[in-house]
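RETRY 2/3 - previous attempt timed out on the joint model. Re-submitting the same 902-residue input unchanged.
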Amino acid sequence: MNQNGRFSQVFNILFCAFMLAPIVVVMGVSLTPEGFLEFPPSGISLRWYQAILDNPDFIEAAWISLKLGIVAATVASVLAVPAALAIGQGKFKGREALQALFLSPLMVPTVVLGIAFLRFLSLFGLNGTFTGLVLCHAIIITPFILRLVLAAVVGLDRTVDRAAESLGASNWTIFRRITLPSILPGVIGGWVLAFITSFDELTVTVFIVNPATTTLPVRMFSHITQTTDPLVASVSALTVIFTIILMVAVDRMYGLDRLLIGEGKK
Amino acid sequence: MAFLEAHGLTKTYGETNAVDNLTFTVEKGSFVSLLGPSGCGKTTTLQMIAGFEDPTMGKIKLAGRDLSAIPARDRGLGIVFQSYALFMHMTVAENVAFGLEMRNVDKAERKRRVADALELVHLGHLANRYPRAMSGGQRQRVALARALVIEPELLLLDEPLSNLDAKLREEMQLELRRIQREAGVTTLMVTHDQSEALAMSDRVLVMEKGRLQQEDSPFEVYERPRTSFVSTFLGKSNNFEAELKSVSPTASQLLIGGRALTGPTVNLTPGTVEVAVRPERIEIVDAAEAVITGTVRERIFLGAQWMMNVATPLGDMLVIRRNAGRREAEIGDTVHLSWAPEHMRILPLNEVAA
Amino acid sequence: MNEKPWMMSAPALTLFGVLLLVPLCMTFFLSFNSFGFYTGIENTVSMENYAEVVSDSYFWEIFGRTFAIALATTFFCALLGVPQAYILYRLSPAWRSIVVLIVIGPLLISVVVRTLGWAILLGNNGVINSALQNWGLIERPIKMMYTSGGIVLALTHVFLPFMVLAVWAALQRKDPAVEAAAESLGARPFTIFRRIVLPQVIPGILSGSLIVFSMAASSFATPAILGGRRVKVVATTVYDEFLNTLNWPLGAAIAMLLLASVMVIMLAWNRLVERRYGEALE
Ligand SMILES: Nc1ncnc2c1ncn2[C@@H]1O[C@H](COP(=O)(O)OP(=O)(O)OP(=O)(O)O)[C@@H](O)[C@H]1O
Ligand SMILES: [Mg+2]
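RETRY 2/3 succeeded.
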């Protein structure tokens, strides 16, 4: 039941309009038939979507971002899941410090991370390489996976592990057959969130790419700082649509608010 | 030689002895209950037998072999956890099949044995359900089937019925006993419910504060409690102090509330002792035969019985009288109480009166 | 006996040790090196970079502007986000799931895209100015691009979802019956919000503010696109030192000062919150 009064309803509508405004504007502008930014568009044309096809830069960058997001999110999951199990289930010295370390990329200003990675990678000749990007992105997105998996792990009933053990299961079997299926929603939710974060990441990435590994956000950023034309709007519109599809999927599966607050499935 | 033997089993957590020098045996094929109040160390004992806790001291032997070096997963025991610990993401059949898979039992045989186990617990028709969609009693039986299907040498049950409502609990007591008998499996069950322990077991081990108080058949622990704690923990009991004057091989002389009485013989030295009398063994008699006289303070009608609380010089006494269809003493009436000497249990004095 | 947790964390620990802790330390040391236009980075140790930043009013202005923008953004996020979270909390479940998507969803959309939207809205020939001119409300466009105000507006949009989420989480922890209790005692809706709900979600507002402030103080994309060269903040200055001027040691010193000030503010804030609300947070 909606318990909000009239004033609250007006506030709610204005708030939603504010949140949607820049996104709607970008989507609208991308449909213009003209050669300049225009809103509302004077007509509807897919001219600027077609233009993307003539700009292999953007397509190339989109592929790199896609690959980077998938690989980095997977690497981060493989690292974060056992760490979350250790932190969530064990009582050991240094547990809190470990958790703080793995969450620390959320605390350090992203520019600082960016230059630190740049400094390190350039000393080892890894700057601008795909490997370098993957490792740095894995660090940035690990906290997101860790938080969600941790929430799932904390809710686990340890006696279930004991039951499996008493039936003869090895530690690996217990993990694969019992633990993993129970925390899977958390892992998948964390993976998707990590993927999106990596896919959108700009501030760190801008320091550590070279022309051959430029990601989509970096490509768009440098385009916008030089000129704002409807081309970048149509590229933006496509990423928005892509994100919305992912978003609705995780919302159905996990609940967007819980995904972002970092709480477990109830 | 006993099937399961525990020798001097001790578990210390920091300062506290959760289990203190526990020694007991379980015969093959029998149903034994570990009974005691909350926090007395029952679960800890069970976990040590299962292999999930390492004893601080002491030994556990199963069929003659020492278990201490054998990890939990190789002990081959069937365990039903208090919370059932079902695998929620697997169907009933998959839950039950899990232990067989771990033993690499081939598919056809696995299927047959799962079906048999589910038949045993009357759940054959629910094989493809998920535990989430089942009642407490059904889940309990899944847990039981899962533990039994691996044909364990020993079945360990940790308060298996405590999550069930009263009616279901009674049904499951009978059911569990039937299944245990049909499977013929040696069983050790933990419970804090004395009536459950009495109803189901061949033998009862009574524990308090980590120590074994008494090990006997249900009838014996009820009829011949050896400590004040056992007398009050199992059933209701009126306990009061008395003077033990002398002991002979056939009888003992007691002074109770200033009256001399003859009681059963006892292995105690003369001095202050505690005497326990069950409320249903107390009779209301004429003034001349009275051991003690008091005033009825409360009276509750329970259908088959009357329960009375009588204030006496020895303290409040609980008296239970069968409803014989006639008038009973009213509140405020003076009543004379007596009991047969053989119904007195003479126990060492318990400092902390129960 | 407990080495298993360490074994399980070892891979992640290695990555974080090698690729996070080492680079951060290296950057810290880099900030003490010096830079010559022809010689590049020289392996000396001195405080000259810090001295340069501290003594130059140009950098004071940049740091001042950065924290002013962050503070203003935090203020507006709280002002708008707190009531919106409460409205969200009181919506019917069906509406709530839609509004949640609208309010929190933008968090998942690239900051570059959202800032582009604001650039289109705020430009001199942008949507807002054209509309106002068309309606005859103004004669000449209001300058919004390349101003701190424009950056605050866009950053408020970018970080609002974090505030809503933090307050939303706090709202869900409170006993849902307290509002009914207050109402049964005769309180009006606004009084209930002010006297009953607000005090209970203050820990959420404070933690949300902390997140917004620290992210706003180090934000890069929005000030870079909306502020350009003219309205520089710390993050864009660091970017220029690293990728344009190539004076890495100076850039590292600026970044370290940013890191230190954000950390100090966060710790002080946490202290304050714990002292004031430590018990309420239990
Ligand atoms: N891991 C532990 N650390 C410290 N003390 C413990 C631990 N596990 C149990 N104890 C203590 O040991 C004692 C026995 O606990 P145990 O779980 O065996 O009791 P129980 O008889 O099973 O009780 P209940 O009927 O409530 O289940 C308790 O006092 C408990 O507080
Ligand atoms: Mg227990």
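The two ends of chain B are 37 Å apart (CA to CA). Closing ticket.
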